[in-house]
């Protein structure tokens, strides 16, 4: 355990002047108009714009500046004055093939896309095309293909209205092939949490943050990925609460925070210490670590019983609300501390110290992110965290619960309104009634299945509502070849990205409005809505001038494709819906009446309106009607054996990126500057491997399936990590992940524990 962790590389606190510098550097690089500052002031407020960055909730009692470093960067990046207009392609150096040698950062820097584009194989360039012509050609190709061979992917950006119609487009076209970015992200949550508490989303609400006694963090990095979370963390520390963190990397945001919105703190440099305890466990060591915590609870409960003291396990809760308790307790008692230490990489003493905090706190929130979801046994990681919470009744009472922190701003909401490949999640009968067609009943493909379909040549057309799938998925090298072999790629995008550079036989880039821009339709400027990590639904209204006259809204583009690809029927009113998004909200309300009651009025409520969640009320929608204790079948989540020379590679995000969008080369909060082509390894492992810090190394995937996966040119960087755990950046390392390496139940790629070897050169 590291009580006051000494940082591996010098870095200031999260927030503070560093975050101001980060924002102003992006301002200097993107040169948006000064009016942008006004847009920042509207962020995350009623009748304002909901941030395009992460899905952290928007408080009802908002502050003057309700945004963070991350949100400000994403805003400035979207509102850049740079334009990637059709004349970009006139430059001799700008063929599609040549652009493949550009870095992601340089592609993004070309600016916002202004016109619909079609690939011309003769010139190896994209060229401007009219919207009607593009829609007609896309529709004709889609209609000519077998229905099951087209895939409709969504990254978690687009609002609920466009997303609902997108799902309807796929179903009226004829399939449920609706994979989404959560398939690479929190699908483990959707599957894992549903199994154990009957809810696919987190159970806490905003007020719980102010009531809790302790946060337990497992593999979530608020400093980089959801910085507005740092405010409730600081508030907890100010009122004497505890924070305990489990993470192989010492993340600055979980060490200390200097509130950039507090002028006195900024001037005095008075930072808040965040984690009381920081446990650097092995990548994939969470099952053992949490079992250790549970063992402490069980032992303390036994001791209390012997001494006739108050019980430590909430037996009344366990009896009334759970099943599987006896088996689970048995595994806590019979698993030895030696095994737990071996598998977690933590000492019994450290785990007992963390266990004491858990036992002492009346109300605990368990927070997690990709550090739990992106493993072969990711769902078991989540079930273990739920076990820990259930022992003391920490789900469904004020100040307590399970808090998965979602990524994209509307990633959770897109699933809510029907972007789902699993038909059990969608009220198909309602769709049949509303629109007068027979929705396809066969499940569609998730991301892994879609990529496998691409590799096998079965997938022939890919429509993408946002995102950069070629860059975000595993097996990226194979993906580039398979993507380009399709008949059709259609990408609804704001900026140029790597997925555009592997055009299919017919390839279109359709540029869309960003969320800050006014969305003028026949009935006036439109409102869109999003759902955050706490299931709150909020309106968002853009007011900036559109990036060009030739871009369309996401909803208008979805409707345009649908009109061309799907047979007309009286119930399908694509034009009317485009004219008035309120009509689409009415349809959403009719499809999901419990969640969206009085939708058009309630969406303007400060902080959004709550969609509700059974588990929050201790109603467990599991087959057993109870919350489920899970007895672990193994003690680590990695799904492969340790072997000499084999390491567990974690793929990390820097503070200077939003997924595949790279803002720059500063990972300020980890003290790493200037390059993303690095491999982090602890000094002991570097010595043992006979390597030297600063030398160039190559990573090779240690999986024997006939594929050669390697990534060279990485500078070996000594870093404070547990033995055997190494780290590189996402998406650069995605060439190394086999598509078959995923969570067993949800198929979320296991991007936090890839078996690799490290070689010189
Ligand atoms: N600035 C910025 N913000 C973002 C994003 C971004 O790319 N940049 N992406 C957005 C998206 S889509 C998402 S999903 C979220 C992602 O946000 P997070 O869920 O925070 O995801 P990561 O940063 O990938 O990883 C989180 C942490 O897991 C730790 N970790 C790795 N392996 C393990 C393990 O085995 N056990 C434990 N306990 N910890 C482990 C890593 O060290 C890291 O600190 O952020 C969103 N916000
Ligand atoms: N190795 C590894 N791989 C990972 C991860 C990891 O931790 N490690 N994380 C995974 C996770 S959590 C996720 S969510 C996925 C992300 O995968 P994706 O969601 O597919 O990727 P993004 O980088 O978020 O997509 C960026 C692109 O979206 C487009 N875009 C931006 N704003 C808008 C908009 O408003 N509308 C539209 N239509 N387009 C827009 C731009 O063209 C931009 O280039 O990656 C996954 N891949
Ligand atoms: Mo994500």
Distance between the termini: 35 Å
Q: What share of the residues lie within helices?
A: 25-40%
* Spatial ordering of strands, largest sheet: 5-4-17-16-15-6
Any idea what the shape is?
Answer: globular
- Classified by CATH, the class of the domain at 83-120 and 131-185 and 410-614 is Alpha Beta
Total number of helical segments? 29
Which residue ranges are poorly predicted, with pLDDT under 50 across at least 5 consecutive positions?
A: 1-5
CATH topology (fold) name of the domain at 83-120 and 131-185 and 410-614: Rossmann fold
Quick one: how many beta strands? 33
The second-level CATH architecture of the domain at 83-120 and 131-185 and 410-614 is 3-Layer(aba) Sandwich
The main sheet comes to:
6 strands, mixed
Write out the distinct hetero groups bound to the structure: ligand MGD, molybdenum atom
Overall radius of gyration:
25 Å
Share of β-strand residues:
15-25%
Mean pLDDT: 93
- Which class do the helix and strand fractions yield? alpha/beta
Entry summary:
This protein has 761 residues and is an alpha/beta fold. 34% of the residues lie in helices and 17% in strands. A six-stranded mixed beta sheet has the order 5-4-17-16-15-6, covered by helices on one side.
């Amino acid at each position: 355990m590291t009580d006051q962790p000494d940082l591996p590389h010098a870095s200031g606190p999260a927030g503070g002047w560093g975050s101001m510098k980060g924002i102003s550097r992006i301002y200097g690089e993107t040169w948006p108009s000064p009016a942008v500052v006004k847009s920042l002031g509207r962020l995350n407020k009623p009748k304002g714009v909901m941030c395009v960055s992460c899905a952290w909730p928007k408080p009802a009692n908002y502050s003057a500046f309700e945004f963070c470093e991350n949100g400000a960067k994403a805003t400035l990046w979207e509102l850049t004055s740079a334009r990637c207009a059709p004349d970009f392609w006139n430059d001799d150096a700008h063929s599609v093939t040549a652009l493949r040698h550009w870095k992601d950062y340089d592609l993004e820097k070309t600016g916002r896309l202004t016109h619909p584009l079609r690939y011309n194989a003769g010139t190896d360039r994209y060229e401007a095309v009219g919207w009607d012509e593009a829609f007609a050609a896309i529709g004709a190709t889609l209609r000519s293909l077998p229905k099951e061979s087209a895939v409709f992917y969504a990254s978690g950006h687009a609002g609920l209205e466009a997303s609902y119609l997108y799902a309807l487009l796929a179903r009226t076209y004829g399939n449920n092939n609706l994979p989404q970015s959560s398939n690479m992200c929190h699908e483990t949550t959707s599957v894992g949490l549903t199994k154990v508490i009957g809810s696919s989303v987190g159970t806490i609400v905003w007020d719980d943050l102010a009531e809790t006694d302790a946060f337990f963090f497992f593999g979530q990095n608020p400093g980089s990925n959801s910085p507005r979370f740092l405010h409730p963390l600081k508030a907890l520390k100010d009122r004497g609460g505890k924070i305990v963190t489990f993470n192989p990397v010492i993340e600055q945001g979980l060490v200390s925070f200097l509130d950039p919105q507090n002028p006195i703190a900024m001037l005095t440099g008075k930072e808040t210490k965040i984690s009381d305890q920081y446990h650097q466990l092995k990548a994939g060591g969470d099952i053992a670590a949490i079992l250790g915590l549970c063992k402490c609870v069980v032992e303390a409960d036994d001791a209390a019983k012997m001494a006739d003291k108050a019980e430590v396990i909430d037996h009344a809760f366990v009896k009334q609300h759970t099943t599987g308790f006896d088996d689970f307790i048995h595994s806590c008692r019979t698993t030895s501390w030696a095994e737990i230490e071996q598998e977690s990489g933590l000492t019994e003493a450290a785990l007992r110290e963390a266990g004491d905090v858990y036992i002492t706190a009346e109300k605990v929130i368990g927070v997690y992110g990709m550090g739990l979801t992106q493993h072969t046994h990711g769902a078991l990681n989540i079930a273990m965290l739920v076990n820990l919470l259930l022992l003391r009744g920490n789900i469904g009472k004020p100040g307590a619960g399970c808090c998965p922190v979602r990524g994209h701003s509307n990633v959770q909401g897109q699933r809510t309104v029907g972007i789902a490949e699993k038909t059990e999640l969608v009220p198909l009968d309602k769709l049949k009634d509303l629109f007068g067609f027979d929705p396809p009943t066969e499940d569609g493909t998730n991301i892994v299945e879609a990529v496998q379909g691409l590799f096998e040549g079965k997938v022939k057309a890919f429509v993408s509502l946002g995102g950069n799938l070629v860059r975000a998925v595993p097996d990226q090298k194979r993906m580039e070849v398979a993507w380009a072999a399709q008949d059709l790629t259609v990408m609804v995008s704001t900026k140029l990205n790597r997925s555009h550079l592997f055009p299919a036989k017919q390839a279109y880039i359709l540029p869309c409005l960003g969320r800050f821009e006014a969305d003028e339709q026949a009935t006036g400027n439109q409102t869109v809505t999003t759902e955050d990590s706490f299931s709150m639904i909020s309106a968002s209204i853009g007011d900036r001038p559109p990036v060009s006259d030739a871009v369309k809204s996401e909803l208008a583009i979805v409707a345009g494709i649908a009109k061309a690809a799907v047979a007309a029927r009286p119930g399908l009113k694509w034009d009317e819906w485009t004219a008035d998004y309120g009509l689409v909200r009415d349809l959403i309300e009719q499809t999901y009446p419990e969640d969206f009651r009085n939708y058009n009025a309630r969406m303007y409520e400060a902080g959004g309106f709550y969609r509700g969640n059974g588990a929050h009320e201790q109603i467990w929608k599991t087959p057993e009607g109870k919350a489920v204790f899970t007895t672990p079948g193994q003690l680590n989540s990695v799904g492969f054996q340790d072997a000499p020379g084999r390491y567990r590679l974690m793929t990390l995000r820097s503070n200077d990126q939003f997924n595949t969008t790279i803002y720059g080369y500063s990972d300020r909060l980890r003290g790493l500057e200037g390059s993303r082509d690095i491999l982090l390894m602890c000094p002991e492992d570097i010595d043992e491997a006979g390597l030297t810090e600063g030398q160039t190394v190559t990573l090779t995937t240690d999986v024997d399936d006939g594929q050669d996966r390697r990534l060279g040119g990485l500078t070996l960087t000594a870093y404070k990590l547990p033995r055997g755990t190494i780290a590189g950046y996402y998406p650069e390392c995605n060439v190394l992940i086999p598509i078959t390496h995923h969570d067993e139940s949800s198929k979320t790629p296991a991007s936090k524990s890839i078996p690799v070897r490290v070689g010189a050169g």
